[in-house]
Amino acid sequence: HCDQYGRVKVQFHWDREGQADDKTSCWLRVSSAWAGAHYGGIAIPRIGMEVLVTFLEGDPDQPLISGCLYHKENLVPYPLPANKTRSTFKTLNSKGGGGYNELRIEDKKGQEQIFLHAQRDWDENVEHDQKIRVGNERHDTVEQNSYTEFKAEEHHT
User: According to a count of CB atoms within 10 Å of the terminal CB, is the N or C end of the chain lower?
Assistant: First the structure.
């Protein structure tokens, strides 16, 4: 779990007597590539993830999480080195969910692709213009109802 500041608690490997409860460590800040007042990026480590803990200026009273690590039990989303040209941000549903959301970018020559997967809903909000250009074919499949509302004119050329 995390607090209102995005801080989490950890179970250190050397803490053999730790109970893996809310008293196991102090709250640790989580490093982000971009953080501002009510904007930025955030990815809170989840229970079971291995994290890399850094101590500001070497001070053990100022720990922070600078990243998460893959290992033999927490494997990468796609096998390596076979998928070394693939960049992925893939999440898992909360405990018991069984699904995921994903943004995947494939840069392998001849197989370039941007893939988006929404486990449930996908909402878009464009405040001004939206333009879409498809250089070849486009296929749309809607398995239930489809609704379109135009509050002005529609033009076809």
Answer: C
In the chain, CATH 2.40.50.230 covers: 1-75
Across-strand partners of 115?
104
- Consecutive H or E run containing 74: none
**How many degrees, rounded to 5, is the angle at CA 138 between CA 136 and CA 152?**
115
Q: Which residues, 6 or more positions from 18, have their beta carbon under 8 angstroms from its beta carbon? A: 11, 12, 24
Fold that domain 1-75 belongs to in CATH: OB fold (Dihydrolipoamide Acetyltransferase, E2P) (2.40.50)
By the 8 A CB rule, do 86 and 104 touch? yes
What φ, ψ does residue 57 adopt, rounded to 5°? 50, 30
pLDDT digits 0-9 by tens, 68-105: 999 999 999 999 999 999 999 999 998 878 899 999 99
Beta strands in the chain (DSSP E): 29-30, 35-36, 39-40, 50-55, 63-69, 86-90, 102-106, 113-117
